[in-house]
Amino acid sequence: MLLPIEYGVRNLARRPVRTALTLFALATVVLLVLIVVGFIQGLERSLADSGDPKVVLVYSVNSETNIENSSIAARTPALLTASLHGTVKRFGITHVSPELYLGTRVTSEAGDGGLGLVRGVTTTAPLVRRTVRLMDGNWPAAGEVIVGRLVAAKLGYKEPSLAIGKSIEFEGRRWLISGRFVADGAAYESEIWCRLEDFQTATRRQDLSLVAMLLAPNSSPAELELFCKQRVDLELGAMRETDYYASLQQHYRPVRLLAWLVVGLVSAAGVFAGLNMMYGAVAGRVRELATLRTIGYRRRAILFSLIQEGVLLAAASSLLSGAIALALFNGLAVRFTMGAFTLRIDSVTILIGCGVGLLLGVVGAVPPALKALRTEIAVALKAI
Amino acid sequence: MRFIISSIAVVLAFTSAGCQSSTNQSSVVDQQTSNTSFVMATEPAGAVPVGDARGASNDGEEVIVLGVIGGSTKPFVEGMAAFTIVDPKVPYCADEEGCPTPWDYCCEVNAVKQNIATVKFVDETGKPIAKEARELLPVKELSTVVVKGTAERDEQGNLTIAASHIFVRAGGN
Fold it and tell me: What is the 3-state secondary structure (H, E, C) of chain B?
């Protein structure tokens, strides 16, 4: 015969201070797990969302796919357009985006400095980078820039420093902010975009970093790759944009492994904290448990009731942590080397966090309960 | 309990079915590879190393070229029966040097530029075959191959061979 569930619920209310402390400890552990998993999810999602399978990047084969180090001739877009016919062309405009991309020091009006990512583009860039949408302001004119949603986080600035009408300085010139854009969580959101010719003038460069091409539905990136291999003299390489960001994901694999290790360590610490709390809770109830056994409840029933208490408390902690994580940490911008991304407290994160929470409830309750139930009834009834 | 046992049985059944289909698929590829009409049983006479072919061949000329598959980290074109070959006289990293990708000729970059050609397998209409070379032919990085086909030259001196046949030397060299 099992103990009624109300027994466990009422037991929690009988010792409110101890229950509140256990709740707090478990909620802290689950919250930490949610934040770390949210970090991993955010990083992975940022890189996964950045690639478009129909976009191929053409870069210098000598740069080893490090686009910031790539340098290709300014005539490359015209050459590619003339030699290949697999690119989307609408209303007479070929969807090819020549770009100059580099990391440089950016200073705000207030004098704050930080390493920013700047991309010089033409008006064809939004035709190829299809997730980019201008939310406020205008496309940049001469001497103007548009800034992505996460640029402030990347640079460590306060949001008002990058408001439309403010100015920033990089490459020895002052640039007026004319607009702000989003890109569905893609890496571009931590970039500053300006006109290609302005950026080339400012950096005293005439070359390009890359050419991004939007392929027509019936064409294959293999044609572009073959062209690059055939034209040995141009020293070009081609790669799907999705493959480029997949290679970056590989680059950040140690970070992800470290983050999962933190999840494991935090969970293990949580188990020990839970065990400690439950040992304390059960130790004070040895006589009560012995009394239950005296009146006929089997060890298994009492153990089940104690697990119910633990799981109930852990479930409440998980819900509390989930609510806090969603309210305070979801969408929080995090800076990292190649830009910024937001913490993602999504369904997977919640599932892992709550799973760890419930596991803590079970694992934390079983050992102390077993210890208490192993004691002889006669001995336990005399326990202080 | 019965439900758990049945679930495990279903999962095992699916897993074993998956393994079976994978094995079948592998044997299909092997069969296609060995039966392909592009592969020659005997090595054709008169093969010219890539470096010499770059100097001597003319656009539209029938050529037989000898080379080693390599020249970059990824010498094969994904989704197309095409790859690059390098003149066998250009050395690549030896096994004992521990280079993970010796076929990129990382120590001989300048020598490779003058001793490399692109090979693309084409159908009767001259269109490249839309299947990766490693699936179509018994080749891999650093395979030594003799390729027969038509030379395509450009003003910059690049050589592409629109190939119709290939012979792969045993042992890779």
Answer: CHHHHHHHHHHHHHHHHHHHHHHHHHHHHHHHHHHCCCECCCCCCCCEEHHHHHHHCCCCCEEEEEEEECCCCCCECCCCCEEEEECCCCCCCCHHHCCCCHHHCHHHHHHHHCCEEEEEEECCCCCECCCCHHHHCCCCCCCEEEEEEEEEECCCCCEEEEEEEEEECHHHC
